[in-house]
Amino acid sequence: MAIAREHEAFEPGSEAFQTLNPGLLRSYAVDRVDRVNSDGIRLFANFQAGWQVLLNNLQAKCEGHTKARGYDGLLTPDSSLMDLTKTFRYLNVRRVVEFLKDALDDHAITELTKLSFFIIAGEE
Questions:
Q1: Which residues have a Cβ under 8 Å from the Cβ of 51 and sit 6 or more positions away?
Q2: Angle ∠(4,8,12) on CA atoms, nearest 5
């Protein structure tokens, strides 16, 4: 939700709204089977599809199952929230942290909180 908020996914003029892509995720498919706009941002048929792909992307990144790179190399569960935000366009890590602190009612969350903190046990 913090990512969708930062990308203004519910603002009609935003790119996230127009592409139905709350994470502004790009397509890296070699065969380009994904529909994309002129900036390479994936286009979805509905918001639910874009939301689900964002959730899947986040889970894979937090578990270290992607080639996404943070500040210290490939993302792993030991990478920080700051590393994760580097993998998205236009994210302000401080605003993401503040959102998460409020949403999760946990003021111990910082830019250095490990991604493993956000992995739901039993979902692996």
A1: 4, 22
A2: 125
The parent domain of residue 11 ranges over 2-118
pLDDT tens digit string along 48-105? Answer: 999 999 999 999 999 999 999 999 899 999 999 999 999 998 899 999 999 999 999 9
What percent of the chain has a predicted confidence (pLDDT) above 70? Answer: 94
Distance CA 84, CA 100 (A): 14
Separation of alpha carbons 82 and 115, rounded Å: 9
The answer to whether position 86 is within a domain reads yes
| Position 73 in a domain | yes
